[in-house]
Each structure stands twice: as C-alpha cells, then as structure tokens.
Specification:
Shape: globular
Distance between the termini: 82 Å
Strand content: 5-15%
CATH class of the largest domain: Alpha Beta
Helix content: 40-55%
Number of strands: 9
Order of helices and strands: HEHEHEHHEEHHEHHEEHHEHH
Oligomer: single chain
CATH superfamily of the largest domain: Periplasmic binding protein-like II
CATH topology of the largest domain: D-Maltodextrin-Binding Protein, domain 2
Number of domains: 2
Radius of gyration: 23 Å
Structural class: alpha/beta
C-alpha cells in the first residue's frame, strides 16, 4: 500500500513538474511578410531581453492572410506582420485581428499610423517620392503628385504596375484628400504621360530613370536608400544619378506607408504578442529598421539619422493609414478604367 501511495505521489509530482514546465515556456508565433534577413536581429534581441522565444513563419501577405483564415481558431499565429496599410486592411476586413490596448503603443505610435480601435500598429514608414534624372535636370512644374498628370510631362514617366500595393495606396490617399473625380483625372493624366508600359519594381524604375530611359518615376524611399548604400558600385552609382522630390510639401505633405503588425483573434500567446509589438516601438528596434532597411521610424524622435543619404526631415501626409485600405477597391477600379496595366 505504501509503495502504491509513493508511486502515485511520484507520478503526481512528475505531472505537476511537466505542467509547470509548459506554463513557463514563453514564446510568440509570428507570421511575417517582411522578407528582410536583418529583421532576425530584432527577434534575437527581443528574446535576449525578455526570454520569450520567437517562432517565425514567412510568406507573402495574401498567402499568410489566407493561411490564418484557413487555420481559424486552431491557428498558432499570435501576430501578423506585413507591409502596406492596404494589406493590414485586408486582414482587418476578414476579421483576423483582435483589439490590443497598450499605453506604450498608444503613446509612442502617432494616431495616424495606427488603427483607431487598436487592431494594428504601424512600426516603420516609407515615403513614396518622385525621382528624376539629374543629368536631364529637375523638371519644371513638378512639386506635387498632381503635377505628374500635367501634359508637360508627356512621354517622361516610368511606373510599376497598377496592381502594386504601393501605387494602390498612393491613389487611395488621393481619393481620400481630393475625391473620386479628381483621382480618376489624375490616373488618366499619368497614363497619358507614360514613357513605356508599366513594368518592373521600384529598383528597376530608379535604374530606368538613371539610364535616361525615362525622366521621372515614383518610388519608395527605402529602395533609394538601399541602392545608395549598396556594396555594388554600379548600383550605388545609378542611385546617385537621380534627384529626389518629396511631393506636396506646401500642402498636405508626402504620402507615407507603413510596415505594421496586429494581434490575431485566436492568438494563444496574446500577452507575449503585445510585448513584442511594444518592443518594436523602442528606440533600439526603431533605429534597427532605419539601419538595416533604410526605413523611417514610426516613433517621432526615435530616428538618429535619415535613412536616405542627403535627405532630412520632410512634411508627411497625416491621414489615418486605415483610409488607404478603405479606398483600395475604388483605387483599383480607377486604375482599370484609366488603362494603367
């Protein structure tokens, strides 16, 4: 009888230890559409600082959104990290996020860079700017996005596809500020000024401007920063051949977009997820975005230096980033009608 009781006590003790060990296991599961190896340093630093292990799954934004939706309540994902407010909006529309209340996040992240109800938070920024060929000279009448549609720029503009989310979000911002009719006129005007059919990505369009294949393009700042900081002399030289214009400095400011993250509805490690997003708003993490990927910090005052050589502060458009998603469908329809392929 004594041996049986002892065995039961030992078994109970073992189970308690196992349960305790499980409870003490700290982790956070991240589904990320940011494909930057340098982000791994962020995860390592978070683990060193908190003891919480980061489990990472990478993929394209729409693939990850579909996967989370498919996994439903059984999804192991705690956080979705993605680029562009439009993609955050797509996940929001599918009901994948759960509101996160955090004094840290609400204090450090400006209101226009986070969802009004705390569904997601912007973590880094990129400005969508105009680049031009320095050798050809800065074009006349090119201070705003609206100026891109001016007939004086006919045959001068290279752009990437209208299906690109960065272009969709730019047009969505124009819709928000100026209405559907003005946005449609703008898209038609830009298409009329194309030097060639839309193609490539931001990098290839910078290279096209540098080579004189066209005079003007619209790109995200971090592509310019990457090229200027490249170890490849030819890549850096190409970037040096383009001048930069931050549009709309005399009115609403330059359009900015974000990388952002939200806590998922079925997150099994919710508290750890919030801790991770809070960590990414710290000065060390914010400057890691700048140093590693040439992005602007989302937290005002955190940035130690400009991520793009030769540029300084600029006035940014402060419409709430959620509008970029809300106007997305209309933007796509306008591009289609304009023949912007």
């Amino acid at each position: 009888m004594f041996r049986l009781l002892a065995a039961v006590l030992i078994l109970a003790s073992g189970l308690a230890t196992a349960v305790g060990a499980k409870a003490e296991t700290q982790e956070v599961n991240i589904y990320s559409a940011r494909h930057y190896d340098t982000d791994l340093a962020l995860y390592d630093h978070f683990t060193e600082e908190t003891g919480i292990r980061v489990n990472l799954i990478e993929g394209e934004s729409d693939e990850l959104i579909a996967r989370i939706e498919r996994e439903g309540k059984y999804s192991p994902a705690d956080i979705l990290v993605t680029v562009d407010a439009g993609r955050l909006w797509r996940a929001e529309e599918k009901g994948l996020f759960s509101p996160a209340r955090s004094e840290v996040l609400e204090t450090r992240i400006p209101a226009h860079l986070r969802h009004p109800d705390g569904l997601w938070f912007g973590l880094s920024k990129r400005a969508r700017i105009i680049v031009y060929n320095k050798k050809m000279g800065r074009p006349d009448k090119l201070e705003t996005y609206a100026d891109l549609a001016d007939p004086s720029h006919k045959g001068e503009i290279c752009m990437r596809s209208s299906s690109n989310i960065y272009n969709v979000s730019l047009l969505a911002s124009i819709i928000e500020h100026e209405g559907l009719k003005t946005a449609e006129n703008w898209a038609n005007g830009v298409v009329a000024n194309f030097a060639q059919p839309p193609q490539g990505n931001d990098t290839s369009n910078i290279e096209a401007v540098a080579a004189g294949e066209c005079r003007i393009s619209v790109v995200n700042t971090y592509y310019v920063g990457r090229m200027l900081g490249s170890d490849d002399p030819a890549t850096a030289a190409a970037a040096e051949k383009v001048g930069l214009i931050f549009p709309n400095q005399d009115d609403r400011g330059t359009h900015v977009n974000i990388s952002g993250a939200g806590v998922l509805k079925h997150a099994p490690n919710r508290e750890n997820a919030i801790k991770f997003i809070e960590f990414l708003t710290g000065d060390w993490a914010q400057n890691a975005f700048t140093e590693s990927n040439h992005e602007y910090t989302a937290v005002p005052g955190a940035m130690k230096r400009s991520p793009v050589k030769g540029t300084g502060p600029f006035k940014e458009d402060e419409i709430n980033a959620s509008a970029l998603g809300a106007n997305q469908a209309e933007a796509v329809r306008i591009f289609d009608r304009a023949g912007w392929k």
